[in-house]
Amino acid sequence: MSFTMNNVSKLAIAALALAATPALAETKFDGVYAGAVASLQLHGSKNAPTEGTAAFQALPAGTVPSSLSLDDNEGFRGGVLAGWNGSSGTLVYGLEADVLFGTTRGGASFSGAAIPDLAPNGLTTSASRRIRTSGSLRARLGTTLGEDLLLYATGGVAVADTRGNADVVVNGAPTVAWTGERNQARWGWTIGAGAEFKLTSAISLRGEYLYTDLGRQSVLATGNSNVRGIAALNGVDYQVGLPYRNGTARVALIARF
After folding, report:
1. pLDDT tens, residue by residue, 99-132
2. pLDDT at position 14 over 70
3. Per residue, what are the HEC states of the chain?
4. 104 touches 63 (CB < 8 A)
5. Long-range contacts made by residues 96-101, C-beta under 8 angstroms, separation at least 24?
6. pLDDT of residue 13
7. Single pTM value for the model
8. Looking at domain 25-256, does it have CATH number 2.60.120.10?
9. pLDDT digits (tens, 9 = 90+) for 159-176
């Protein structure tokens, strides 16, 4: 494609206009950054309903739970983050990714009433959940207050390596048991807000809150050979729904390059 003198003139005028346009002033939070982050879970969904099987739920009232109330997933976790910020005036926007390591866990159990002729000492039903390595990819949007303080909101996708367990044992007969485990990378979403303060031109300190929802994980506990050898228990399996929804407080130390 050939350019006429008219086209060249238009390009030159456009280039001159662009050069004459004043550049937007950068904030102290612009650019590429990386840092270390520590996280503490503040709260989480606890209700783990019994989802099935129908034969399990049909056992006499009081022998099995309609749901379990799980402990909070306890423990500190740590990791790394990296991201980029741009700005337009006092408006700051960017993209950030993080990875957290360590393990948090929670569980519960229920001891039920006796089942005549089958479990005279009752059943103990239990379930647990565990979150191991996790991460997120989030957009950030905020505003500066003065030169050294940034207030922002953030949200995006989240993923975690999870493990759920479900178990039932006949009290007094531990070899008659149901067990189940599910290892899964669960995807969901996360949203939150925070504040970041510049300590020096290159170092800043951040505090934030994130709520993460990875949905509910179904775990089926099937009977072992001793269970299968009892005709009345054939097909009576335990299935539980483990929730992975929690809120965390996080602090981070960040370096800009």
Report:
1. 999 998 889 999 989 888 778 889 999 999 999 9
2. no
3. CCCCHHHHHHHHHHHHHHHHCCCCCCCCCCEEEEEEEEEEEEEECCEEEEEECHHHHCCCCCCCCCEEECCCCECEEEEEEEEEEEEECCEEEEEEEEEEECCEEEEEEEECCCECCCECCCEEEEEEEEEEEEEEEEEEEEEEECCCEEEEEEEEEEEEEEEEEEEEEECCEEEEEEEEEEEEEEEEEEEEEEEEEECCCCEEEEEEEEEEEEEEEEEEEEECHHHHCCHHHCCCCEEEEEEEEEEEEEEEEEEEC
4. no
5. 96/137, 96/138, 96/139, 96/140, 96/154, 97/135, 97/136, 97/137, 97/138, 98/37, 98/135, 98/136, 99/133, 99/134, 99/135, 100/37, 100/39, 100/133, 100/134, 100/135, 101/77, 101/133
6. 45
7. 0.84
8. no
9. 999 999 999 999 998 899
Query: Taking all residues of the chain, what is their mean pLDDT, rounded to a whole number?
Result: 88
pLDDT score for 40: 93
